[in-house]
Fold:
Amino acid sequence: MKTTLKTDITVKDICEGFIYNELEGKGLFGLSGKLTIQPEYQRNYIYADGKKDVAVIESILKGYPLGLIYFVKVSDDKLEVLDGQQRITSFGRYVTNKFAVKDENGMEQYFGGIAADKQAKILETKLTIYECEGSETEIKQWFRTINIAGIPLNNQELLNAIFSGPFVTLGKEEFSNSQNSNIQKWSAYISGSANRQDFLECALDWVSKGNISEYMSRHRFDKNIIGLKTYFNSVIDWVSGVFKDVESEMRGLEWGRLYETYHKQAYNPAKVSAEVQKLYADSYVKNRKGIFEYILGGSVDTKLLDVRVFDDATKKSVYATQTSRAQTKGESNCPLCALGHDANKSKIWKLAEMDADHVSAWSKGGATDVKNCQMLCKTHNRAKGNR
Ligand SMILES: [Zn+2]
Structure:
């Protein structure tokens, strides 16, 4: 790969013909149309937060270096930004009056409103740019290893760069577009942001059963994303059909896995909703995130709910009562051992050898208080199972 250092290109040059697409959140072109700011393998613009974009402008005004910027030379009069897209889009948006920066008096000022000498200082700032030429493979390999200035690329952003092509472009159009009206609905079940590719990553994770890069490689040159979209919508429709309630604990659950495991079973949404509400109101349920899988699985696996257990004081007090009564009778302090016929029939277990058990199971309405507590030897408690 060949690289050429350029130190004479100014902010003004780059901003010549700068186009920002508000809808897609992308800086599109600069350098009088010669430069493509956001080629398809690049991530979305994520500096528009009133901090990182402002910091870029403040750096320029203070004369601090903006860091290295990398262009790929595609042909004699075509360049693409390889690294520096966030910085370029930030100053491009500022120079075209898209956002304001506070001046020394704390006043928000747009570019058009600042003093002429400050405007000139920004426009005349020279950038340090490497122009790279090489094969697609070389350049992408390299892009993978550079995380120079700003926020490092996350996994999905890297995969989008490596497997760039029509499939990624279409996938981003659907899942990484914050203007997509479905995002709000999806956000009930998926955590993260469209800009950072979290929805695309989730959709790929579900359809590929966790083998995202293998899936992306196989579909890289597909001209449609029908399989990806259909599977994703099936999962979302299934969840929203079974669970009428939208609870914040639903966000980020492994819906893909749950769909695979349970979608062939029938559920009565009204009954499911009543059960969700009952469990939400139950103060013994410590893990609310587990409620959904618990219900899907037929309300048996109470481990998923992390039901509150008896505290040490309760255990000690029940142990003391049970043990003194057992000693008087000459039988085991584990009531189930006492019923048996083997050597344990009269065994007095130590506190550490026993576990607390709900006499009447929690799942059948039994409370977690001293009246519903009995101590069992570990073997019998384990055998009793359902707590
Ligand atoms: Zn026992």
The longest strand covers residues 69-75. The two ends are 65 Å apart (CA to CA).
